[in-house]
Amino acid sequence: MPSRREFMRAGGGLLLAGGAWAVPHARAELPGPAGFSALPAGAVSAADLESLPGKVPLIKRTWRPPNYETPMAYFDQEFTPNRAFFVRYHLAGIPQIAADQWKLRIGGDTATTPFELNLEQLKHDYPVVELAAVNQCSGNRRGLFDPHVAGVEWGAGAMGNARWQGARLRDVLAKAGLTKDTLEISFDGADGPIIPSTPDFQKSIPVWKALDENTLIAYLMNGEPLPHWNGFPARIVVPGWAGVYWMKHVTSINALSKPFDNFWVKTAYRIPTNRFPIVEHFVSQMTEANEPITEILVNSIITNVTPGQAVAVGSAFEVRGLAWDSGRGIEGVEVSTDGGRSWRSAALGTDYGRFAFRSFSQAFTPVERGPMLVMARATSRAGATQPMVLIPNPAGYHHNVVQRLAINAV
Amino acid sequence: MKRLSLTLAAAVALAAGLVVAQERRVELKDAPGRAQVETHCALCHSLDYVLINSPFLDRNGWDGTVTKMIKVFGAPINADDAKVIVDYLATNYGKP
Question: How many domains, chain A?
Answer without folding.
Answer: 3
